[in-house]
Amino acid sequence: MTAPTTESESPTPPEGRVGRTLRRQLERLPQYRRHAKHLRSLLAHSTWRKLANVALVESEWLRRRRVVRGRPYILFIDPTNVCNLKCPLCPTGTGDGGREAGMLSYECFTQIIDRFSEYAYEVNLYNWGEPLLNKDIFRMIAYTHHQNLMPAMSSNLNTVRPTDVENLARSPLEYLTVSIDGTTQDVYAHYRRQGNLELVLDNLRALIDLRRRLDRKTPFIEWQFIVMRHNAHQVDEARRLAAEIGVDLVRFIPVGLPFDAKDKGKLRREWYPELSDSSPSGAASQYQFLQRPSRSACFYLYRSITVNPDGRVSPCCIVYGEKNDFGHALTDSVDALWNNERYQSARSLFSRTGVPTAPTVCDRCHIFAHRANRPRPVPAAHTNGPPT
Ligand code: SF4
Ligand code: SF4
Question: What is the whole-number distance in angstroms between the Cα of residue 84 and the centre of ligand 2?
Fold first, then answer.
């Protein structure tokens, strides 16, 4: 059995200024490894037109352009915002999503794909719910593959129907993230409320076993572990268990808070790992400060588009709620949507000369630093991305 790749393989960094810089880079390895996912899609699903678009998008992002000619090449299309679990830092889990619960229909899904497939590489079939609850999820995966795009999914793997493991192993799904933040039922269910760890691990074992018997390399399976106050002591055990089960990658990520959470200070105290942690891997201190606000322009506004089950578009996969929407993926044309007033205004927050012309959720973003949100009172108020 091949041991999964984890950031724990990073060598102990030297001390001093260079050492600190190196350590910061090493600590970010899980993020770099996630970038390997994008590289896979680039290698497997390129056309000359797509490559030219990527070059254009990246150059417009670097130049912080307000009006862009490039088109999004990473799609987040949410099959449902319904979930079987009740995670306390997820707006779906707490019922604060600010959007009617629903399922994306297969017909709408194919129309959305058709609008963006000319330039896109990957489709992330998840955001604010459990994708396996959508009865058409495997048709969506198949259609994504058929359109020369990389299908990726994230699941809590609790609601698996009898046929789902086989469908997952045989489908063209290329990347599967499974969220497991604990190695004992009490710790796991402290956050993944109503979840059943034994069931999840059984499903994971069955999937990997079938994938092996089918002699397939996909889906590539990532075990995602959000490091929190109550589970930081289980990081090393999770790493061991993942190796035993045979997942391809274990990724430990810092906990985030809901973008619109009211009392972030209280939530930080409740969920952030304690700095006094003395676990062998120093998990707590490492993950509390893993992510800081980025000084680059927000790349979501250039590279990706996020479509909700009702077809409406969010500016990124981090914010939620209809009130923050930027448009509609089916009723707006791609050209009109991608340079509408809200997108232009949000991009102008990061440009050197631009002036925002419309209020958007990006005005109060604390993930990417811009003129309107400086100075920030706290250094690491990071938020949740796609939750499952
Ligand atoms: S809310 Fe922040 S991360 Fe999301 S699109 Fe706006 S600037 Fe980017
Ligand atoms: S974080 Fe994921 S698993 Fe938990 S409630 Fe939200 S969508 Fe469901």
Answer: 8
CB 90 within 8 A of CB 129: no
67, pLDDT greater than 60: yes
Residues with Cβ within 6 A of ligand 1? 298, 300-301, 315-316, 318-319, 346, 361-362, 365, 367-368
Q: Is 4 in the pocket of ligand 2 (CB under 6 A)?
A: no
At 292, the pLDDT band (50, 70, 90 cuts) reads: low
pLDDT tens figures, 228-275:
999 999 999 999 999 999 999 999 998 999 999 989 999 999 999 886
Supply angle C-alpha 106, 108, 112, rounded to 5.
115
3-state secondary structure of 317: coil
Neighbours of 375 (CB within 10 A): 5
- Please provide residue 154's backbone torsions phi and psi, each rounded to the nearest 5 degrees: -130, 135
Is any ligand 2 atom within 6 A of the Cβ of residue 90? yes
d(CA 7, CA 2): 16
Residue nearest to atom 7 of ligand 1 (CA): 362
Q: Which atom of ligand 2 is nearest to the CA of 388?
A: 2
Angle at 333 between CA 329 and CA 338, to 5 degrees: 75
- For residue 222, list its beta bridge partners: 177, 249
Residue 14: what pLDDT? 36
**CA-proximal residue: ligand 2, atom 2 (nearest):** 388
